[in-house]
Amino acid sequence: MIWTILLLFHGILFFFFLSNRTRSKREPPLDKGVIPWLGHALDFGKDAAKFLTRMKLKHGDIFTVRVAGRYVTILLDPNSYDAVLQDTTSLDFTRYAQVLMDRIFNLKLPNHKPDSEKSIMRRHFQGESLTCLNHAMQNHLWTLLTFETTAQNQTNWKQDGLFGFCYSLLFRAGYLTLFGGEQKNNCMDAANVYMEYQKFDSLLIKMAHTTLKSGEKQTAGSVKQRLWELLAQAGLRDNSSLWLQSYRQHLKEEGADEETQRKAMLLQLWATQGNVGPATFWLLAFLLTHSEAMRAMRKEFNSATMPGTITLDPQQHTPVFDSVLEETLRLTAVPFITREVLQNKTLHMADGQEYDVRRGDRVCLFPFVSPQMDPEIHHEPEKFKYDRFLNADGTAKRDFFKGGRRLKYYTMPWGAGTNACVGKPFAIQSIRQFVFLVLSHLDIELSDPEAQVPAVDASRYGFGMLQPIEELQIRYKLRERPCVQ
Ligand code: HEM
């Protein structure tokens, strides 16, 4: 009894301490919100972009908010981002990542060494190995796309939702490329994994926020169980990529048991397959609703094929595609870059101001608000402009300014610093290849010619690629004679 009272007393003291925090002069503006302990958690979770834009108007480029008992300092000046990204001593990436790993994947890795994992991945996602992966991905995309279109009567249009069409094809091709699959029945295996993954993905944000209702908890549990079983052989069979085989071997050497290894396979499935499909959806949605962009894209692809073939020359530069992708990601890639403060620290801002942040707090960059949607950097930032990242002479545009200073970070869909996306070149080539295949081998159009790009699901802000709130209906059929025009 005495222990219960003591614990309760400490709990109340701790709660009081957290609620009663006051700002010292050298700290960023503090906004605790009106709800005790929760602070701004509800607004943050509902639509982080809207909430943080409102806070920026109120407090400026740096401020601290209370979110479910934690104090989070938000930094929104891209000229000052390096103050966070380059400090790996006082600011730590792994702790928060581990919290999410546990919440979403029930995964606790023994002797977790993120640097070794990253170096395994870097080794397999560059140079000769990357060329092999790109080639395998291209073959799987081609097989799945032709299977999809010839399974029906070739001359008939097929109706579909563009999001499901892109996500399902890229996910299955990516899964077969990296994870391998049942030797005898590749396509069914990949389709089963995709089906279960979709259920998992639909609950992912609630898992991360720990807001699953009791029925959803059960569903999440059983879906994860099924995925762990489906992924049991990933990295063990010969047709898994060399990267996944090395990673699984690494897990064994680190002392991870069989169950932990399977859980880690699901984590990798999410990291490698969760963004490419949605990114390609947005890109094609913008092309289908912006005829000038579509014309420019087709023209460029037409001149980038290998002579006498309908195959994209991997050596050819495609600046129009690069700009379309950059612009698509500027509007729809929305990561949080979060660090845990390990020791009290002073943040030096680009304008000369200094702010103290406290040990135990988190610091978070949200590049979507700035640079990506910052009107000072990108004129009419809410509009899709396919040539925003092109100079007048057709070369890639890299000069963007804020406060008179040239920006190092003018868009940040791939993260930055030590935790920047390792799979970026593979992702870009997969998207480029898929868009090329679709435009050259399919007649594809909007079911309703007046349809617009759907709104985003605002609850997904902060978790990488956004997803649409509803489908964009398309119809497509295989071209009798493939060509890009
Ligand atoms: C459009 C597609 C993609 C986008 C927008 C994207 C974006 C990102 C971002 C923003 C991060 C940093 C996360 C953070 O700081 O917390 C990241 C990390 C990562 N990405 Fe990607 N990614 C994509 C595709 C891929 C692909 C295809 C792979 C692998 C095949 C991949 C592998 C990784 C890995 C392993 C990390 C973790 C790096 C680390 O912890 O240091 N990504 N990605």
Automatic annotation (TrEMBL):
Positions bound to substrate: R103, L109, N275, R362
Membrane-topology annotation of the record: Single-pass membrane protein
Domain of life: Eukaryota
Keywords: Endoplasmic reticulum, Fatty acid biosynthesis, Fatty acid metabolism, Heme, Iron, Isomerase, Lipid biosynthesis, Lipid metabolism, Lyase, Membrane, Metal-binding, Prostaglandin biosynthesis, Prostaglandin metabolism, Signal, Transmembrane, Transmembrane helix
Annotated catalysed reactions: prostaglandin H2 = prostaglandin I2; a hydroperoxyeicosatetraenoate = an oxoeicosatetraenoate + H2O
Signal peptide: 1-24
One cellular component term from this protein's GO annotations in UniProt: endoplasmic reticulum membrane
EC number(s) per entry: 4.2.1.152, 5.3.99.4
Chain sites annotated for binding heme: C421
Cofactor dependency: heme
Pfam families recorded: p450 (PF00067)
Location within or outside the cell: Endoplasmic reticulum membrane
Gene Ontology terms, MF aspect: heme binding; hydroperoxy icosatetraenoate dehydratase activity; iron ion binding; monooxygenase activity; oxidoreductase activity, acting on paired donors, with incorporation or reduction of molecular oxygen; prostaglandin-I synthase activity
Gene3D superfamilies assigned: Cytochrome P450 (1.10.630.10)
Biological processes, Gene Ontology terms: prostaglandin biosynthetic process
Family: Belongs to the cytochrome P450 family.
Role: Catalyzes the biosynthesis and metabolism of eicosanoids. Catalyzes the isomerization of prostaglandin H2 to prostacyclin (= prostaglandin I2), a potent mediator of vasodilation and inhibitor of platelet aggregation. Additionally, displays dehydratase activity, toward hydroperoxyeicosatetraenoates (HPETEs), especially toward (15S)-hydroperoxy-(5Z,8Z,11Z,13E)-eicosatetraenoate (15(S)-HPETE).
Protein name: Prostacyclin synthase
Lineage, highest ranks first: Eukaryota, Metazoa, Chordata, Craniata, Vertebrata
